[in-house]
Amino acid sequence: MTNWQLIEDVRTRNPLVHTITNIVVANDSANGLLAIGASPIMAAAVEEMTELGEMADAVVINIGTLNADLVAAMLLVGKAANAAGKPVILDPVGVGATTFRRETVRRLLAEIQFAVIRGNIGELASIADVQWQSRGVDAGFGDAERAADIALKVARKHRAVVAISGAVDTISDGERVVTIQNGDPLLPQITGSGCLLSCVIGAFVGITEDYFEATVTASASYALASEYAARKLDEPLPASFRVAFIDELASWQTHDQAKLANIKEVR
Amino acid sequence: MTNWQLIEDVRTRNPLVHTITNIVVANDSANGLLAIGASPIMAAAVEEMTELGEMADAVVINIGTLNADLVAAMLLVGKAANAAGKPVILDPVGVGATTFRRETVRRLLAEIQFAVIRGNIGELASIADVQWQSRGVDAGFGDAERAADIALKVARKHRAVVAISGAVDTISDGERVVTIQNGDPLLPQITGSGCLLSCVIGAFVGITEDYFEATVTASASYALASEYAARKLDEPLPASFRVAFIDELASWQTHDQAKLANIKEVR
Amino acid sequence: MTNWQLIEDVRTRNPLVHTITNIVVANDSANGLLAIGASPIMAAAVEEMTELGEMADAVVINIGTLNADLVAAMLLVGKAANAAGKPVILDPVGVGATTFRRETVRRLLAEIQFAVIRGNIGELASIADVQWQSRGVDAGFGDAERAADIALKVARKHRAVVAISGAVDTISDGERVVTIQNGDPLLPQITGSGCLLSCVIGAFVGITEDYFEATVTASASYALASEYAARKLDEPLPASFRVAFIDELASWQTHDQAKLANIKEVR
């Protein structure tokens, strides 16, 4: 389920990750991708989406601050990447919050074949048409069993790897379901920490054909980096953590992921 | 004039603050809101403004990098929040700098009932139609008396709490005027420190009906956090300060605001 | 070729630098400009570009996340600045990556007279119509001789100072070519470090008429600040470096640039 060698391969091969993202997290996503050795490009003009979709090693579509122009760009770049055989990752930020987001995600899922769909439990529940207590872009509370059900359901329906991020990560390819019990509680206190994980998954699926293994490896490594970063802090405070975390991503090939990752196959 | 309990209440109740903001400060505004325990959402598509205006506990409209599409979104979300009885905060960034900004702010003020208007002295002078030496988005120089006059005038005219930020903050509800003499000089050296204050005020007015008290409490707490942050630095340098400041916001319920706030009723 | 007094003059005169930039780097560019004592304004509405082009001391056009609306704004602000005799700086981010970028830059160069064009070697090679191995927004590998040729060619054709940033900076005014061998390897690991340099050059050319001297001085000072920042780190990690670097910009008038700059006239 894991292939820790991918961490080193990303640094050697510098996959080009093209991201349509939002104004809140674009900077951290770019710096995080640079830190792990990937090559970020963030553009959103419809005029260049086809070329970039073909050129990139992976495309990440994040609906955080979407609008009609960006949706048009998302559709173009997703289809171009599909046609070129490049993996596309969906980050359905706050999809349950508004009708526009729900309809946009429905359309993206209908017209683009995604390799990976990554979000929090509230977002994936919305895609699965399952009731979930959710408010704004934050996840509601829930339990592990239902997360596994939702991951499995969405993975099967959309023939994609589904990664539900939270205190416990739940990842499914439609057959298997694994959980990852790693990660420091400071991580979700940083805006865009989920968006950056989607980009990091993009870098990993950009260099391998086993998207499930890549997603599990990226998610576990990312969670472990947050643990390493938190251990370096004098006090558990978010802005210091954010600096320490990006620094950890830059040095994560030196971590002992194989030993520290707490990954279980639950289905 | 103050209610320090609000600090704890924000952390307990996690008000949802919807912000239409600019590409420069969006990340700091989101991280700052998370740090104080609020729940940020930043979206700007006209298609979802009505829903978000109804759903949010407070709406912050920041014109930093405005354009015609964003103005349409601002009007929609402001009216929806008004209709739903949710407070709306205006941050008229650089309003005096261009005709487009002046006209946009005039229109926003005419069509939306704001709970709070927060800006620097140059911005509020422009709204008050008072002459003020101003350049770009930076405040010009002035004196306390004129700030009080301007705050009072704008507060009365627009039936809103007005907060003028600067070395001394001046806040009026159209009857009273208070000044707050707190805050470290490093604070304005961070881009978006004013924009984040507007969001923080949004979080406070989102959980109480006394907007004046909420604005004074938020402003004083914010200024005090900058003093705490500055004291932790080896040298007074801006990027280190920025990290320390967001960290302080995450721990400000442990500060002794009641003792350290220098608040005076001047009218 | 250098005038170190400009560093102090920027801090005293606070040039207003208007930047049309991208969602990835806007925050760092604003904080970096504030750190050196300049006054940033970032706006992009076509309605206000003429006023801002006239008002600013310098205008920086960065095509990082361009779209049709932004291109219209770029043309307006560039022409307004030209008419008002204000210097305009072009940062052709990733110009070689897509047809839309190439055509946009061609049009900007045809309709606006730039004072300075700053980019990496891949971007300048694209403008010079010279073959260069390039991928996405990252520079390819090359040699000093070809960089000098490209700088000279573009500088002559567009009657602008050309600054090619990299491990070695190459700067030409169409007659002379100088190289700067300063700068820490961490600098390009920060997204937008080149974009911020374009803004810093904007601040310098905003207060002097000798654009070549201003560009060489700004570039060398900037590279030296990265060396100072790197020396303060316990470990060479990017997020810590980013904080230290902006801090160094805030204190760079205390550096000994004259002694440490490694500048050579090579043509």
Automatic annotation (TrEMBL), chains A, B, C:
Gene Ontology BP terms: thiamine biosynthetic process; thiamine diphosphate biosynthetic process
Alphabetical keyword list: ATP-binding, Kinase, Magnesium, Metal-binding, Nucleotide-binding, Thiamine biosynthesis, Transferase
Entry keyword annotation includes Disulfide bond: no
Needed cofactors: Mg(2+)
Pathway: Cofactor biosynthesis; thiamine diphosphate biosynthesis; 4-methyl-5-(2-phosphoethyl)-thiazole from 5-(2-hydroxyethyl)-4-methylthiazole: step 1/1
Keyword Protease: no
CDD domains linked to this entry: THZ_kinase
Binding site for substrate: 42, 192
Catalytic activity, reaction form: 5-(2-hydroxyethyl)-4-methylthiazole + ATP = 4-methyl-5-(2-phosphooxyethyl)-thiazole + ADP + H(+)
Purpose of the protein: Catalyzes the phosphorylation of the hydroxyl group of 4-methyl-5-beta-hydroxyethylthiazole (THZ).
Entry-linked NCBIfam families: PRK09355.1, thiM
Similarity comment: family membership: Belongs to the Thz kinase family.
Protein name: Hydroxyethylthiazole kinase
